[in-house]
């Protein structure tokens, strides 16, 4: 699975939208999680949906939107289907539930996603191998024992977006800045060993 992560937008919705677009189009993320405590991604997604299918872009209004196809030309029908498929694609973009957390399984490991890691208790930490959090002034990848703590940093920082890829054995973490350049990379290996590489500056550790 290729899982995208978006850091807090801090009010910059256009930058958040660009980050999400990059993760989908260039990163080929199958899902994208926004690790923040606001509704910025929801507003971005709503704006995209409105631009694709017009007012009331909900699934419940699909039948009403489809009625116009009864008298439409083949090209118009094709355009309608394409716009609805694009709307459905937006479902891969998700925000953390307010005050809650989300769990994913990557390479057989429990990955826990939360805005503020201070909200985690000992039971949460014990159960997870990878803890992804949004509340951080900058990107952070830190190994503590058998666990890896990771934050993409806020949008507009040295990071802001990231990809987690478990398709090559282990979990590969890539942090990217607003231009899409990889600024840090780390691999949580098959036996929870970590190989770290700092991309900027060319140093390795």
Descriptive overview:
The chain is α/β, with parallel strands linked by helices and 205 residues long. It is built from five helices and twelve strands. It has helices spanning 13-25, 40-53, 62-66, 74-89, 122-127; strands spanning 2-6, 31-34, 93-95, 102-106, 109-114, 130-133, 140-144, 147-151, 161-165, 171-176, 182-188, 194-197. The protein has a seven-stranded mixed β-sheet. A hairpin with a 2-residue loop joins strand 7 and strand 8. Helix 1 packs across helix 2 (40-53) and helix 2 packs antiparallel against helix 4 (74-89). It starts with a strand and ends in an 8-residue tail after the last strand.
The 3D shape can be described as elongated
Major sheet size, sense and barrel closure: 7 strands, mixed
Indicate the multimeric state: single chain
Radius of gyration over all CA atoms, rounded: 19 Å
Q: Please, what is the average pLDDT?
A: 82
* Intertermini distance: 26 Å
Strand order of the largest sheet: 3-2-1-9-10-11-12
Could you state the order of secondary-structure elements as H and E? Answer: EHEHHHEEEHEEEEEEE
Number of helices: 5
Class derived from helix and strand content: alpha/beta
Helix content: 25-40%
Strand content range: 25-35%
Low-confidence stretches: 191-205
Number of strands: 12
């Amino acid at each position: 699975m290729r899982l995208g992560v978006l850091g807090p937008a801090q009010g910059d919705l256009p930058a958040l939208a660009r980050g999400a677009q990059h993760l989908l189009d260039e990163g080929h993320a199958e899902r994208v999680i926004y690790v923040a405590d606001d509704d910025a991604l929801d507003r971005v997604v709503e704006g995209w949906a409105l631009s694709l299918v017009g007012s009331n872009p909900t699934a419940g209004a699909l039948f009403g939107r489809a009625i116009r196809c009864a008298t439409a030309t083949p090209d118009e029908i094709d355009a309608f289907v394409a716009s609805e498929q694009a709307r459905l694609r937006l479902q891969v973009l998700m925000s953390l539930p307010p005050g809650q957390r989300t769990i994913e399984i990557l390479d057989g490991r429990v990955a826990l996603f939360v805005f503020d890691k201070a909200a985690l208790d000992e039971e949460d930490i014990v159960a997870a191998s990878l803890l992804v959090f949004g509340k951080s002034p900058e990107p952070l990848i830190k190994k503590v024992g058998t666990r890896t703590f990771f934050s993409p940093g806020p949008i507009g920082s040295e990071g802001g977006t990231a990809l987690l890829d478990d398709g090559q054995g282990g979990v590969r973490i890539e942090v990217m800045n607003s231009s899409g350049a990889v600024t840090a990379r780390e691999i949580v290996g098959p036996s929870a060993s970590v190989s770290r590489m700092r991309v900027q500056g060319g140093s390795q550790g």
